[in-house]
Design brief:
Structural class: alpha/beta
Strand content: 5-15%
Number of helices: 11
Distance between the termini: 38 Å
Helix content: 25-40%
Oligomer: single chain
Strand order of the largest sheet: 1-2-3-4-5-6-7-8
Length: about 260
C-alpha cells in the first residue's frame, strides 16, 4: 500500500470496501505485508506465535512496545495497531497511563482493547484523551483462563443480545473500528449491521466489514493445529523445512558455498 490509510478512510470503508488486517511482530514480515494489507495488528498473540506459550496472558507492555517499534520500522506506511496486553487497562487511569506510554514510545496509530460494555468506560476515557481505540468483542483471548477455554460466542439468544450491546457500547465510547472474534456468522453479520463503524472478523464469517488473521496461521507456519476459521494460503512450514534440508545437505556435501558465494 503506497499511501497510509487513515482513521477517516477506515470509517468510510464501512459498506464500501472490506478491510484487510494481518498480525505482524517484526520488521521483516511487516515490510512484506505492507503492500497487501490496510492495517497491521501487533497482536499479543506474539507470545503464542513467537514464545510458544499456551495463551496470550503473559505478554507485557514492554514486549508490545518493542514489537510495535519493530513492525513500524518495517512498514512505515502502514496503519499500525498495538494490542494492549492483559492487565494494562484494568481501570481508566491505568489504561490511560499505559496507553500514553505506547503512544509516546512507538509510532502506533491506535491501540486495541478487549471487552464490550464492561470496557466502554475505559475506551471512552482513552478516546477523550487523544488515544485512538480499536475494540475487540466476542471471544476474548485474554479471558481464556476465566472462561475455561476458547468458546465460540453467539450460540444463545442471550449471547446474541449481549454481543449487540457490546458493539453499540464500543461504538458509543468512541472506537473507530472493532474486531469480532469467534462468533456465529449470522450473529456477527447482525452485529456489523447494527453499528456504523467497521467490524473486522476473525472466525466470524464473511458478512462483516473485513478480516484479520494471525500471519503464522495463514502462512502455514503453525503446525500443531489449524483453527476452523483459518485458511492456509501456503504450507510455510513444509517450505521452510525443505529449504533448510537442502541447505543442510549442501553444507555436508560441501556443495555450498560455491565460487559465486566466495570472496
Amino acid at each position: 500500500m503506497s499511501k497510509k490509510i487513515t482513521i477517516t478512510s477506515i470509517k468510510k470503508s464501512k459498506g464500501a470496501s472490506p478491510l484487510v488486517m494481518i498480525t505482524a511482530y517484526d520488521a521483516l514480515f511487516a515490510k512484506l505485508m505492507e503492500s497487501s494489507c490496510d492495517m497491521i495488528l501487533v497482536g499479543d498473540s506474539l507470545n503464542m506465535s513467537f514464545a510458544g506459550k499456551s495463551d496470550t496472558l503473559s505478554a507485557t507492555l514492554e514486549q508490545m512496545i518493542y514489537h510495535t517499534n519493530a513492525v513500524a520500522m518495517g512498514a512505515k506506511n502502514s496503519f499500525i495497531i498495538c494490542d494492549m496486553p492483559f492487565g494494562t487497562y484494568t481501570s481508566p487511569d491505568e489504561a490511560l497511563k499505559n496507553s500514553i506510554r505506547v503512544f509516546q514510545e512507538t509510532p502506533a496509530d491506535a491501540l486495541k482493547i478487549e471487552g464490550g460494555e464492561d470496557k466502554a468506560h475505559i475506551i471512552k476515557h482513552l478516546c477523550s484523551n487523544g488515544i485512538a481505540v480499536c475494540g475487540h468483542i466476542g471471544l476474548l483471548p485474554q479471558a481464556v483462563r476465566s472462561e475455561g477455554g476458547y468458546k465460540v460466542k453467539g450460540k444463545s439468544q442471550e449471547e446474541r443480545e449481549q454481543l449487540i450491546r457490546d458493539a453499540k457500547a464500543v461504538e458509543s465510547a468512541g472506537a473507530f473500528c472493532m474486531v469480532i472474534e469467534g462468533v456465529k456468522a449470522e450473529v456477527a453479520a447482525e452485529v456489523a449491521r447494527g453499528v456504523n463503524i467497521p467490524v473486522i472478523g476473525i472466525g466470524a464469517g464473511r458478512d462483516v466489514d473485513g478480516q484479520v488473521l494471525v500471519f503464522s496461521d495463514m502462512l502455514g507456519f503453525f503446525e500443531e493445529f489449524t483453527p476452523k476459521f483459518v485458511k492456509k494460503y501456503i504450507d510455510g512450514a513444509s517450505l521452510v523445512k525443505s529449504a533448510l534440508k537442502s541447505y543442510s545437505d549442501e553444507v555436508k556435501s560441501k556443495e555450498f558455498p560455491q565460487d559465486i558465494h566466495t570472496y
